[in-house]
Amino acid sequence: MGKADKIAPHVRPEYEVTDVAAAQFGEVQRPLSMFERIWNVTGVRRFVVVASLAIAWELYARYLNNPLMFPPFSEVVEAFYLAFAKGPLFGRMLTTLQVLLIGYGCGLALAAVFTTLAVSTRFGNDLLSTLTAMFNPLPAIALLPLALLWFGLGLPSLVFVIVHSVLWAVALNTHTGFKSVSDTLRMAGQNYGLTGVRYVMAILIPAAFPSILAGLKIGWAFAWRTLIAAELVFGVSARSGGLGWYIFENRNLLETANVFAGLLTVIVIGLFVEGVIFRAIEARTVRRWGMQR
Could you tell me what percent of the chain has a pLDDT over 70? Predict the structure, then answer.
């Protein structure tokens, strides 16, 4: 092929833009208005959602005009205040929280034992995998008849079903988190001479903490739901109990507003644990370490 047959590359003509209209520039940064600054606050947006639901509830209840079946939101708030300030609701709430803390603590302790065995030995790994596959799908509420048979009425039966709710979720997530720690990070810890407890505390737990925290959240949610359901059953039998029994007792008395007040207490406690306690733990750990946005 001769020089005349070669195709010359296309050369783009050079040019210079001298007059660019201001409208062609994008707005990179501008000061936010007062409304935008307020709307950017997560708490404000959530409050708007809750207020909208409360208004819809109030309007629909007044349209239905049947307080026995569906009382207005204002009547529920009044019942909640009277039951909490002058009634038994505060004491029932403390009873429920006390049982929850005992069961949740026992579940975490057993999960730590199973996870330690699983990361230390192959038999422990097989044991945890087998038990988790067997019992994790089993609803804790299905064990209530067995708990009644073994432990009778009272605190041990409630603690038993809560431990079952917490143990497998926390152990499974913690074990998965430990297994996901990279070899590079493990070797870095070993190069620094970390062994035993120092190696676990300085390398494994911080690296696996997002999974551990997810397990704690799942375990808490399972335990909370199981406890309220179990208190409904045990409250009927033993004539005592916490929030579950309070809800069931007022349902029998046809005090529907008080039933909603008990449910509102369950929701408020759930929001407090999720939005305050776990959010504070996240802010001081995984977000501070740059592991979560």
Answer: 91
